[in-house]
Structures are given as C-alpha cells and as structure tokens.
Amino acid sequence: MSVAQVKRISISDSPIPWLLPLVSLLVVFTIYPLIYNIWLSFHEFVPRKRALQFVGVDNWVQLWNDARFWSSLGVTFAYFVIALAFELALGMAIALLLDAELPGFGALRAFLSLTLVIPPAIAGMMFLLMEDPQFGALTYILNSLGLLDKSIPILATSSTALAGVLLAEIWQWTPFMVLIFLAGLRSLPTEPYEAAMIDGASSFQMFRRLTLPMMSRVIAVAVLIRGIDLFRVFDYVFVMTSGGPGTATYSLSLYAWQQTFSFIKWGYGATLSLVSLVIIMVLANIFIKVFKVRW
Q1: Per-residue pLDDT of the chain (295 residues; tens, 9 = 90+)
Q2: How far is CA 6 from CA 13, 22, 92, 132, 227, in A?
C-alpha cells in the first residue's frame, strides 16, 4: 500500500483507521497469548535443559488422571454456585429496599460502591484478620452469639474454611449486584404496578408476576458477568488460605498458578488454564442460549 493510499484511507470514511488500534490490542493481548498457551500445552519446561520440550498430549492425559485437578474443579464449582446464589439473593433484596427516594438513600447507594474499589487481595487480608481465631472481630462476634465454637478456627478447619473465604467474596461483590439491579428497577415502567395495586395485588405477587419477569434480562446479564468472574477465583483463596487446610479451598485457578510458578510446569499450567477457559466458554454459551441473553 502506497503512502497516497494510506493518506486517502486516513481522511476518508473508512472504518480501518478506527478499528486498527482495537484489532492491534486484541492481537497482542488476546489472540497471541491464546495461541501461545495452546502451543505451550503440548510442551513442558525441562529445568536441567533450561528449555521447552515437546511432549505431545502428555499434559492432557495427565490432566484427566489428576485427582488434584478434579478436586480443585469441585471446589471451584461449589464456590461458584454458593457465591452466585448469595450475591443474587442479597443483591435483589437490598436493591428492592433501596429502590425508594427516602432521605439518605442516595448517600447509602453511593456508599455501597466503596467496596468495589478495594482490591480483592486487600479485602481478603481484611477478612483474614477479622477471622483470626485469637483477635479477629468476626470470630469474637460469632463466638459471643454461640454460632461458632471457640476451639474451631474458621480458616484452619476444613468444614468452615470455604465459608470463611466466601464471606469476603460475598461482602465485596454483593454491592455490584445491588447497583445493577437498582439500575434495572429504576428503568421499569410504573403503569403495571399501578394497575396491580388497583386490582389488590400484594407486594409479593407484584414482585413475582411483574418485577421478576421484567428484570429477567438484567438478572441474566448480572449472573453472566459475576459467574465468569467467580469461576476464576484466585485472590481471596491465595491470600486467606493458600488452598488449605488440605484441599478444602483449593480452586482451579490456584492450582494452575501453583503448577506454573511454584513447580515450574509451564506446559501443565497452560493446560489447566485452557481447560478453565473452555469450561467458562461452554457454561456461558449454554446460559446465553437457555436464558436468551441479549446485549
């Protein structure tokens, strides 16, 4: 392409000059890393040779026979389902309570967004301190209420460790759901509610017959966004428990990170990352098809 053609394109209505930066970013930060990750999954780093060695499908065969992989996948799904259910229910409940023009509610809605600006690692550290068995404020409150035995450290007990990590996740990201649902509630028409009130419908009936159907697309988009993020959980687990005790909080992302950077198994770590990506894509597309999500 000559200089004259380049100048002609740059001053015309052609979309190429506007799309070129975006395409460049996609190639550098998305397409190339994906292709390299796929290539890396068929290789493995050999420390004594300080080089990558082609191993074929060995990493993929190892994956299916790896009990730790299946265990981490089960923990990830449990974390995903529990966190999403709580954030969805609490987010909708709080949004319904705040959907009013009472004094102070505007400031309260703005205050909710403060948790979203805290880095997840910092939020995890905060809850790590609050759940400390000796001087943690949250532990003290639960012990005082009789909800937790003093001999049971939350994050050091396999039966409670996942719940302890989930508290940080739910606390930080429920306001995100609240803000999305509030925006949806504010956009709903008022005429159907006025007609339902005249007909004598109760608040629960209006919520079930009017609010939920009209909010279905907003709820679906919120679930899709949070679901993708939840499946990649790493920060809270890494900071609060490092996957312990045992494998009680060992997520798939943490396992992939450990294989890649702790055990220097770059090929196997790439394989785990690709499997996680495939699972997310499959689940997201099934969700979009089933619930007919439209952007």
Answers
A1: 566 665 565 565 667 777 788 888 888 888 999 999 999 999 999 988 888 999 999 999 999 999 999 999 999 999 999 999 999 999 999 999 888 777 777 787 778 888 989 999 999 999 999 999 989 999 999 999 888 888 889 999 999 999 999 999 999 999 999 999 999 998 899 899 889 998 888 888 999 999 999 999 999 999 999 999 999 999 999 999 999 898 999 999 999 999 999 999 999 999 999 999 999 999 998 988 887 766 5
A2: 13, 18, 53, 63, 44
The reply to whether CATH 1.20.1250.20 applies to domain 65-290 is no
CB burial string 236-264: b at 16+ within 10 A, e below: bbbbbbebebebbbbbbbbbbbbbbeeee
Tokens of residue 51, six digits: 């080089």
Taking the C-alpha atoms of residue 227 and residue 145, their distance in angstroms, rounded to an integer, is 33
84 to each of 137, 184, 292, how far by Cα in Å? 26, 18, 19
Q: What's this model's pTM, rounded to 2 decimal places?
A: 0.90
Q: Give the torsion through C-alpha atoms of 79, 234, 152, 83, to 10 deg.
A: -30
- The 10 Å Cβ neighbour count of residue 286 is 10
